[in-house]
C-alpha cells in the first residue's frame, strides 16, 4: 500500500466520435451534418482506491483533432500534482491554466484552449466528487458559501457582481436547502426535449416524436429553424397541432440570422406561440440580441451555448439582452466559471435553462442546475434542462428521465465517465464505428 500522498500520474486523452450525421441526429440550419464528438480526458492517480477523473469538451467532428491537441498541451501542468490538494481547491489549477500567457494569447479565455481548460477542470471536479463519495451537485450544494466563493474568478465581473454580492446570494441559498433537496430527490428537475425537432426530420417523424414527448411528461419541446421560412412555418404548424395549445414550443435558429432577419423570421412564427427564440444571431452580438428581444416581445430570447466566458454573459445580462440564460457545461472554463455564470444569473434574476444534448452534456449539466435549485436560486420556476434522447447508453451513469424530469444522480462524481467498450468502438479513426469509413479511404 502506498504511504505517500496520491498524485496525478497520467493524463490520457481520446478522440471519441459518434457518426450521428448518418441519421441526421443533431442537424440544424448551421450544422447540417454533425458527428457528435468528445475530446475526452482521463486523470489517473497512484492512489489505491483506483478513482480517476473524467472530463471532455464537446465538438461535432473534425474539430476534435484540434481540441484533443489543446488538452494535450495542458498535461505538464497536471502530472505530479497532489490529488487531495487539487480536489480541495480546483480554483488553484484554474488560475494556473488560465494564466499561462503563451496559451492565453490564443483566447484569452475563449475558444479551443478555454474549452480544453474546461475539460480538465471538469475532470478534476469529477475526481473531487468521487473522492468525497457524493454526486457533484451534492458536493456543491453542501459546500460552505465561503469555499464556493473561493472557486470563482471575479476578475472583470465586479462592476456587475462583487464577491460580497455573491456571498450574500450563496448564504441566502442555504436557507431551506434541505427541503429543496428532498423535493429534488423525490420529483427531479424539470426537462424539455429537443428530440422531435432536428431539421433533417420529416413532418411525420416530427409529429410522432412530439406526441411521444407529451406522453412522456415533457411540458416543452424545441424545434430547429432557420433554413427555409416556409418550411419552418409548416413545421411549427405541424408541431403545434401535434402537442396542442398547452405545451410550450421553443425554436432555435443556431445563429443563422442577422438582426433584421431574426426579427422578421421570428414574427412569422409568432402565430404558433413560440416560447423562446434561441440563438437568433451571432452569440457575440450582445446589442443585436438586445434589439431582437425588444422587437419580438413577448417571445423570449435565449442564448448561451456558444457564449465563450463569464464576461460575455455579464454583458448580456447588463444589457438586458436575454430572457433565458443557457449555460453550457463544456464551453467555458469548467465548473468554476459556470459557478460565476450561475451567480450572475441569480443576481440579475434571469432563469437558467442549460444547453444539453451532444455527447454527455445532459449528464454534466444536470448537476449544475440541481445545485442552483438546492443552494442558490432556490426555484425551478421557468427553469428546465434540455434533454436529447441519444448516446446516453455510452455512459457509466447515464441520465434518468422520469415523467419529464431529470432524476437526481446518486452515484459519486460528475456522471462524465464513458464505458470502456464505447471508447474502444468510437475512437477516431480506428474504432469499429469508423472502420468502414477508414476502409473506404484506403481502397
UniProtKB/TrEMBL annotation:
Q: Which InterPro entries match?
A: Enolase-like_C_sf, Enolase-like_N, Enolase_C-like, L-fuconate_dehydratase, Mandel_Rmase/mucon_lact_enz_CS, Mandelate_racemase_C, Mandelate_racemase_N_dom, RHMD-like
* One GO term of the biological process aspect: amino acid catabolic process
Database matches in PROSITE patterns: MR_MLE_2 (PS00909)
Per UniProt, the enzyme's principal EC class comes to lyase
The keyword Lipid metabolism is annotated on this UniProt entry: no
Superkingdom to which the source organism belongs = Bacteria
Q: What is its EC number?
A: 4.2.1.68
This chain belongs to which protein, by name? Answer: L-fuconate dehydratase
List the top taxonomic levels of the source: Bacteria, Bacillati, Actinomycetota, Actinomycetes, Kitasatosporales
